[in-house]
Amino acid sequence: MVEWITSDGLVPYDEAVAFMEDRAEAIAEGRAEEAIWLLEHPPLYTAGTSARREDLTDPDRFPVHETRRGGQYTYHGPGQRVAYVMLDLTRRGRDVRRFVQMLEHWVIATLDEFNVKGEIREGRVGVWVAREDRPRNPDGSVAEDKIAAIGIRLRRWVSFHGISINVEPELDHFDGIVPCGIRDHGVTSLVDLGLPVTMDDLDVALRRNFGRIFGE
Question: Which position among 47, 108, 180, 205 bears the catalytic label?
């Protein structure tokens, strides 16, 4: 069984990391069930293992947390649903690439419930949406914005960290970084796309589609 945990209020980042590390160790030792933790953080930036200092364009704006998850700089803050996934990959085939693809499909299936077509782009981490309502790029291609980020870490084949989906964050808070090191593309949210989606709405969709994608 996977335990679902939902936190009200804003969870400090260091507190979340400590919890995940402890829970991942307990899962690896068979002392605890797998878990999905749904939460929001106060405004902050995180630096993954591939983060480049030049991509932190406003280092004094919010606290910056060094983290050993994969990826580059990301923003977390109110209005963004973070889903931390503490899952045992030993039970799930020990295929990291497939696991990340399943996380991507989970996000895409969840967005689809709100008539948002999320897409994956080669060489660009995360989930993207085409913006037909905006002018095309100089090369004639359709403008695209990022709506969800993915970054995980494994310890003893147990995952932690996870995904984040923008429901209604302050989008200008992303301006202090180059999100995931990707320039020339924007960031969007469900509300920015004109959808009156609440955090509770998203949580219901996340839980329903987790079962569909992961076979739970």
Answer: 180
Name the pairing type of β-strands 144-155 and 186-187. parallel
Closest CA relative to residue 165, chosen from 137, 142, 195: 195
Q: How far apart are CA 150 and CA 55, in angstroms?
A: 18
d(CA 148, CA 139): 25
Strands (E), 99-187: 119-121, 124-130, 144-155, 158-166, 186-187
Q: Which candidate, 68, 63, 17, places its Cα nearest to that of 176?
A: 63
The residues that bridge with 94 in the sheet, in sequence order, are none
Task: List, in sequence order, every residue forming a beta bridge with 81; answer none if it has no partner.
Answer: 165
Residue-wise over 81-113: b if at least 16 C-beta within 10 A, else e?
A: bbbbbbbbbeebeeeeeebbebbbbbbbbbbee
Average pLDDT value for residue range 72-96 = 95
Please name the residue that has the structure tokens 């919890």.
Answer: 19
pLDDT of residue 215: 84
What is the rounded distance in angstroms from the CA atom of residue 152 to the CA atom of residue 130? 25
- Contact yes or no for 54/75 (Cβ under 8 A): no
- Is 180 part of the annotated catalytic residue set? yes
For the entire predicted model, the pTM comes to 0.93
The pLDDT score that the predictor gives to residue 123 is 79
